[in-house]
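Troubleshooting: if your tokenizer reports a length mismatch, compare your output against this known-good record of 297 residues.
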Amino acid sequence: MNPHSSAFGTRIPAYLDRLAQALDRRLPAVDQDPARLHQAMRYACDGGKRLRALLVYAAGESLGLPAERLDAPACAVELIHAYSLVHDDLPAMDDDDLRRGRPTVHKAYDEATAILVGDGLQTLAFAVLADEPALEPAQRLRMLSILARASGSLGMVGGQAVDIASEGRRISLEELQSLHARKTGALILSALQLAAAAADAAADVERRLETYGRHIGLAFQIQDDVLDETATTEVLGKTAGKDLAQHKSTYPSLLGLDTARQRAASLFEEARAVVAALPGGAAPLRWLADHIEGRGH
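Known-good structure output:
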């Protein structure tokens, strides 16, 4: 753990509480018609690591922004992430029954509701950014563009399409990295870009944040592949061993477990180094890299 960045860790509970309250204000009330859909939307947003939102807050704090300027982008990126998980778990996709240690949305409700939950969360994410009074109009427009690119066919959705098409066949390491740069990495990268947009950051600062985001996104995915093979369902909160069962190419299958772990460690170190050169040293982002590197689920 970086001794110079540990103070951010003490603020994590406050940021998580802030995010929970911000989401609560923006999600439709459970008794608002159609009530069952709105209840399911809230169910989908409950729990999780909140990594993408924490990246927004950590980057924003590193750039000297007040938290109220970060609430909307933090909520938006979490709403997109939640929608992606709901759709990813559907029988037509990964067909999973467990997410965050409890039944997936299509199991807790039904498949049609799960599809509509994803649709509702996705569109709400863009409304949250468009309607945020703490941001300037130009900042809102830029954030909408950032999140749309990260979420669409050239980003997360495209990555999911390639992932489905890759099941049952061995792909190269370069193809795997391209797949995950879209499926997982694009939304993680967008969290850094959203914070930069909120700060009107200089081009060189934005480039360093983007490099950090790309390194963290790839390292996170390598970790996920390793944990899918080595951790239990109880620890993960989702079904372990899914990648092997679906005959997917993973970093451990292409590199071996030890080399995959070493590659992730190298990426975390590179991420810390690139933001350490920012004014103030970006201690929150370095702490978060340490925190993610040490995760067990």
